Amino acid sequence: MFKHAQLESVKAWINDPAHGALALHVRIQRAIRQLILDGALPVGKALPASRPLAQSLGVSRDTVESAYSQLHAEGFIERRVGSGSFVSQRARCLPSRKRQRPTHSEAPVQLSRRGTAILHSGGVHNFQSPRPFAPGVAESRHFPLAIWEKLERQVYKEYGTQALEHSEPQGMAPLRRAIADYLNLERGAQASAERILILTSSQQALGLCAQVLMDAGDQVLVEDPLYQGTRKAVTAAGLACVPVPVDSHGLQVDAMARLAPDARAVFLTPSHQYPTGATLTLDRRLLAIEWARQQRAWIIEDDYDSEFHYAGRPTACVQGLDPHERTLYIGTFTKSLFAGLRIGYLLLPPQLVAPMTTARTLQDGHNASIAQLTLARFMEGGHFNAHVRAMRALYAERRDVLANLLRRHLGAFLVPQVPAGGLQMPCHFVQGLSEDAVVRAARGVGIDLLGLGSLYAVPRNDAGLLMGFAALTPAEMREAVVKLEKVLAGLVTSGRSMR
Predict the structure, then answer these.
(1) Can you tell me the mean pLDDT for 448-473?
(2) Within a domain: residue 113?
């Protein structure tokens, strides 16, 4: 028979609300199995007969028999005719759970060099909820959900169960055609459906570029300051990151050859440099294209939020200016539509379509067909352009509201640099504030900020904050700015804000 403690353990297990979704015989089987795994029931130990155990637990004998049958089938117990049920000899080979508990003296796990680099670089800080003032978060409350639902129903009606099957490895053809048409018309690209590769995100695109085009140890040029996701992708691939300074005209292209004569690629955000918001001038774009031709290097153009330009039309992309087909263009719908869509893309030179598609299928196969086909209809019907136009006007208004609020309430602490485009505003400290202290204190009152200094590879006297404004109403911004004013004033008064 079970000891009292063992019987009580089984009762506690089967009465635990966390296990309520399991059938009663499964709960009894799992409880006894756990006692065997924990060593509470040793090898050869006789189990109670099904009838008395059923009486003790207040269940039917058939329920206990079902539990014993499953334990026998899994090899945890032996059933001997005329003798009863016993913990199986096979349980002798089970590792003791108590012995397997990790201790501080155990050796650390051995990772590959790439795994170690990824671990030490940390994850990309994705601001996943629209807390004030999370950078890069788009407004989703204005998304035309009814239209999206209608188009999705049309997809089911037309495709039936085919919409539930695997996507084509390169992405669904209707979406690739829609993206190519959009890029040619709105971004001045040289695009065709055959050159589009559908992905889950711009981060996946950055990772593919870093891993497929370069070998570990190769030099790549990056902007300084730099989007964290690009730095993580470069580090994960084992590449040597060479920072190039950014000024008000974008990347200082004339310094590239001097800083890294053998560089294999340059990562650019030419439309709105992240995080400064600078636009790469035409002469520098042309110099970068010529550099890539001479070096037989690649330009990796991350056009992450080019739709949102608030003064005139957005600048045409670098890819459309490149006659040598050395530019890879990255786009995403995370900023222009909604983050949960999880669709990005690469516009590739023809010679890279096959290797990039193969590499992508090894990572995660494909995107969901339904979302791709719905997005294709959303674009073909003009809904995408209409939504972007509406959001462009809304974001421009919110940008100006934030700038005015910052000047009115936080002028003693920081100066906003009003961007010509994008979803976030760089702000520079006017006194010796500590970015880390400000970010930590703000997080404590529900405000998400990103320190500008953390985005530089080469430390500069350019401390400040990156503040997102797209996902907040004027009232929400006003409330958050008042909170932040109190946070900054408290830090200055306590003397804990100084660098």
Answers:
(1) 89
(2) no
